[in-house]
Design brief:
Elements: H1 2-14, H2 16-39, H3 45-64, H4 78-82, H5 85-94, H6 101-107, H7 109-132, H8 138-149, H9 153-161, H10 165-193, H11 198-208, H12 211-221, H13 226-256
Length: 258
Amino acid sequence: MTGILDILGSVLERHGLVTAFAFVGLVVWISYLVSDRLTRGRVHGSAIAILIGLVLAGVGGVVTGGHRGLADIEVLAGVGLLGGAMIRDLAIVATAFGVDFAEIRRAGAGAVVSLVAGVLGSFAVGAGVAWVFGYTDPISMTTIGAGAATYIVGPVTGTAIGATSDVVALSIAAGLVKSMLVMTATPFVAGRIGLDNPRAAMVYGGLMGTTSGVAGGLAATDERLVPYGAMTATFYTGLGCLVGPSAVFVTIRALFGA
């Protein structure tokens, strides 16, 4: 029996990426099962999967004493590649392929205004919260403000302007919390805010910005709206990465000192 387990472990380690896909698939299957059975789909399976992922990452870090969560466990090392920037960005861009560009043209200025308001508003709120909690230097305020935009914009901005690792970690945490809140709250507020058509979904994606949160929330509301919300949310991420280390950082530095 021990020999069989050793052989199985060796095979799983050699094919780390395949193992990671199977492991993540199992987690997602369990998450959607919990979503269907316990919440009747009102809390999207993606939100539950993110929560399980965070718990498992913490457990992995404690067990191994490492810094990469489950990826520090040899048999699950492929999780580090699967969760890396390359596949993440591919998944984000892929959401755009379900979009009807005629609907985007009809959205007009509303989508553009929502993007600008969403990005700048998130930076302002995040930077303000950072200042309240004692992170008063421009680099920290900008980085945490970027995290309030999305957990992708946070580390991109922090790395570009020289933020410390703990501040970058805070920005990622802020983005993850936002993503989960948007994902779980969207189905409950959709009816009240008229979130039932492609134009509204694009404006909503532009205001919220977190691609995973918007996509998960819209999937639990009406899956036909997912490509439209994800489209503007993806632009939101790109816009945040562009203005965060440049215009926003320069503005915050001018207001709060070098």
